[in-house]
Amino acid sequence: MLLAACGSDSKSTTPAASGSGSSSTASSGLKVGLAYDIGGRGDKSFNDAAAAGLDAAKAKYNLAPGDVKELEAAQGEAEADKEARLTQLADNGYTTIIAVGFAYSNAIKAVVPKYPNIKFAIIDDNAVQSPNLADLTFAEEQGSFLVGAIAALKSTKHHVGFIGGVNVALIQKFQAGFDAGAKAADPQVKIEDKYLTTPPDFGGFNDATKGETAANGIYDAGADVIFAAAGGSGSGVFKAAKAKGAKAIGTDSDQYQSAAADVKSVIISSMLKRVDVAVGTFIDSVKAGTFKAGNTVFDLKSGGVDFSTSGGQIDDIKAKIDAFKKQIIDGTITVPTKP
Amino acid sequence: MTSRDDGTGPASQVRIRAGLVNRLRQRYPLRSVLLGFAAPIGAILFAALASSAILSLGGHSPGDVFQTMFKQAGKPTPFVDMVNQAMVYYLSAVAVSIGFRMNLFNIGVEGQYSLAALGAAYVGGQLTGGGPLHIVAEVVVAVLVGAAWAGIAGVLKVYRGVSEVISTIMLNAIAVGLGSYLLHKLGQSSGNNIQTKPISSSGQFPGISYSGTHSKIFGFLIVAVVLGFAYWFIAGRTRFGFRIRVTGLNEEAAVASGVNVKRMTLVAMLLSGGVAGLVGLPELLGQTHTFSQTAQSGLGFAGIAIALLGRNSPIGMALAAVLWSFLGKSANQLDFIGVPREIAAIMQGVILLSVVIAYELVRRYRLVLQQKDVAAQLATGEPTERDAPSAPVVTA
């Protein structure tokens, strides 16, 4: 697995040496710009999954530092700021541009038609269709179903919890899948659902303290496994799990690999949302000249979502989970997308 | 922006006969004007020095950073973005300052404008046609919603003595929840986002083209300018504005002279909320045409900072809004020279802090000067060029 290579906490950009954005034209001809959602590189979750895809492409195509630019969103910014970020990437010579997160939807809609020769991709959104835009979405509910089943089977108290970063439709898909999976594996399971913030406050994706507080509440209520679908806030959930001697499940990236060493033991699995695969596939397609506009859904079948086994804590139930996985893929189980 | 004369003293009668030059000299004595400019300019210089020091410590060249920022702000698209953002900040600052004038701290602009924008977006999305009336309906809804939400705090203050600071902060939190609930009820999903039905073309505020960019300056600029004039006129030139100021300066004196303080408090709160309702409209009517979960937030708090920086003066707040917006927008380009753009937030903070300190220093210095003047007058028996009375402005 080529996930979450970045272990550093540094938030802000890879310094592009000096001078302005213009730099040596690389032999590969690829110039990739990435606009992150709130949290940016280093959130050890959603954004880092995108970063991992970029890093892989960087290595694969031997991209120079000047051929890659990463910019990050600010909390509560104006629509114009998102547009400006994409426009800046385009104006500074980046011809393969990826907007990470549905927050960029309206900005993409405004910017994409102005640059017909630049290939854009947006993660987690399919509201905008354009001949130079790839909409990359995921069947999160399918992966969440599997970790729901894992949580229920690993809970000794028949009591599990879900923590969503922000109460938006996207994260509700995680919740719907998780709840359904937990009930499918253990009909008498009790589930606590909790969201950290409500829009317009998107801070719940990047607030470890809130994650820890919420997790403590759920563990105290009697649950012993929590699925943290909360981006960067997940690290707080792991901390709480460690302190309470309980278990947790990560999201997006394989968080067992990226988490601090002292909390690794509590992470029994992660719901993998292979944003890195989506980013990599998109960059590959531009490089190979096989770019495909429109919506591509990454699901269990295509390996776009999955569950992780690193740490070896779910080896005993892996066969059961794989059985669920097969049933979802062949259509025996249809996972709800709304809780 | 600091020497405001009440226009009620005995001096005003003399002034009618005096020539224009004399009147100007008396209204705006040179020393007072210089002192007025000393505080903000000194603060900005100090902030520039402080941020240069921070940049140097981080191994960046301050010259490069400032040059990049100015170059960026001069480019057409960022320039338009900057003007648009400044306009929004200005509306928010005016809303806050209406309360400040009366010693009312309306911390709730944040909640007021977000609910107002949601209401205006919903109503605007339902209507079709109607020409300019479509826009008028949206603006009216926004003003009413903003005023109503602020009015809750006003009523609590007047009839129950609840501090408006507490109640507006609480109402902000409630507004977030209520807005989210209403958006789920009234909105439609667009991909993973939820937004209100887009406003049709008749309800969109036409923008002003600017050469060299597709981006347009929000047409709402006109409303902001008109509002600035109305604010200046009402606050400084009407009985109503005078009563508001008097109530803010000395409530007992106001009551004694027949001002209905309860009514004034409620009216000021409603006005402040009504103007707050406009804050979300430039972006809504000029760009997004829909209210979604990702709408801009934090404008209410920026408004507080800008009202403080501009000392509640219409011109001062406009300059402060432009400065705030300049720092925010021009910093975006810093990412391309390897400097964290968070430096702009540091500059904003340093400017605000140093402005507050500088105003206090100037106020003390002015007092000392006045005491000297008075002492000199008493000693010689002759009137000297007197300084204007210290400005009746709410200080932080």
Written account of the structure:
The complex is a heterodimer of chains A (339) and B (396). Chain A has ten helices and twelve strands. Chain A is α/β, with parallel strands linked by helices. Chain A folds into two domains: 131 residues, 3-Layer(aba) Sandwich (Rossmann fold), CATH 3.40.50.2300; 154 residues, Response regulator (Rossmann fold), CATH 3.40.50. In chain A, helix 1 packs parallel to helix 9, helix 4 runs antiparallel to helix 10 and helix 6 runs parallel beside helix 7. Chain A is globular and about 55 Å long. Chain B starts with 10 loop residues before the first helix and ends in a 16-residue tail after the last helix. Chains A and B meet through helix 2 of A and helix 5, helix 8 and helix 13 of B.
How big is the Rg of chain A?
Answer: 20 Å
What is the assembly state of the chains in this entry? heterodimer
SSE succession of chain B: HHHHHHHHEEHHHHHHHH
What is the annotated CATH architecture of the largest domain in chain B? Orthogonal Bundle
Q: Using the coordinates above, name the CATH class of the largest domain in chain A.
A: Alpha Beta
Walk across the major sheet of chain B and give the strand order: 1-2
Strand % of chain A is 15-25%
Query: How would you state the average pLDDT of chain B, rounded?
Result: 86
Task: Kindly estimate the percentage of residues of chain B that lie in beta strands according to DSSP.
Answer: under 5%
Count of the domains of chain A: 2
Query: What is the share of helical residues of chain B?
Result: 55-70%
Shape of chain A: globular
CATH class of the largest domain in chain B: Mainly Alpha
| Secondary-structure element pattern of chain A, one letter each | EHEHEHEEHEHEHEHEHEHEEH
Main β-sheet of chain B: number of strands, strand sense, barrel status? Answer: 2 strands, antiparallel
Unreliable runs of chain A: 1-27
Question: What is CATH's topology name of the largest domain in chain A?
Answer: Rossmann fold
Pair with the most extensive interface? A-B, 47 and 41 residues
